[in-house]
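User: I'm writing a tutorial on reading structure tokens. Could you give me a worked example: one chain, its sequence, then its tokens, then a sentence or two explaining what the tokens reveal?
Assistant: Sure. Here is the example chain.
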Amino acid sequence: MKSRERVERAVRHQPVDRVPIDLGGMKASAIGIKAYNALKKALGIATPSRIWDPKFMIALVEEEIRRRLRLDVVPLDISSVADEARPDREWMPMELYPGAAGLLPPGTRIGTDADGSWRLLDPDGKPTAYRMPREGYYFDDTSFDAPGATVDPARFRPVTGFSDEALSALQARARHLYDHTDYAMLGWGGGVCFLGLSLITNRLSNVTMGCPSEWMVMLMTEKETCHEMMGRSVDASISCLKQLHQAVGDRAFAWGIAADDSGTQRGEFIRPELWAEMIKPHYARLCEWIHRNTRWKTFLHCCGSIYHLIPHMIEAGIDILNPVQTSAANMDPARLKAEFGDRIVFWGGGCDTQHVLGSASPAEVRAHVRERLAIFKPGSGYVFNQVHNIQPNVPPENIIAMLDAAFEFG
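And here are its predicted structure tokens:
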């Protein structure tokens, strides 16, 4: 069974020859550049590494790695696909911290603050809100709840489309991957974000209004305004998705509709009843459009303890849930599989990145993965991935042990 068929059957809860494996199919199933460089060294691969997203300092997984680790998924992300087509000579070599040598996307500009911290700059050379301490591993968004930050509905301008250049690059990449490889393509771009990162910070246009705490209060005190803003966000997303589907068609098997972290380590950000009242209807409208007009499955990235939200997500039309943070409260994998495994696809949860992947021995990682696959594998409807991105300090032997075990026991 080829990768594309394997993934498409898995996300439709159909029998597969083995569990599909993902690493780097989207920007929250990826690997930190430092860990990636160490992995390549361990495997004897000496090519330059590309830093897929400077904010997260994650690597763009190469074909040689995909083949060695028997991966099944490739990304199709409108935010980066044009840069991916450019040759290495147009990317910018830089090493922001030891072990993180790589090529930054064309046009990336990085400066330093007075204390020596790195700062991402905009195209005009002005500092953005993204800052990384010299001892850090990635850039933090310092605009969240910053002094003076507020939610102003009048300034909310959701993006309603993409440039012809970006769409042409996306179309060319999709056609190439579909015609010349057997990988399954996971699409990303044009989605919404209502809660975890705040709708205000994800759907902005040339303005930063990062104030998630005020937004959460508004969900209780200014419901009509919130519904109006989220409705506009869905309208904009549908406009974007129409363009994306015209460019890609059904070559992609699924599309990311949101990166909407709705849970903490201990529980949901807001009461499930409030989530169902305020957010669920907007997810449902977006998912309904996708299901009516495409063959895509809907893919949601949502971190944390979200057990009490999953039934609502299923009812709203979410097909695939990532990263399945099994280390959070109420997220026991056996319970998740037993209660929801026949109604939603779990994409992740295959290795605990908080307590196992970075600190256990390779043998312990292998045993852990075997246990997880014994839970998630039965009945299909599962794609293996670790919980969120592999962190920069994870030993390469643990990464190899994890993915080799995923292949062997999957």
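What the tokens reveal: Residues 223-248 form the longest helix (26 residues). The CA atoms of residues 183 and 280 lie 32 Å apart.
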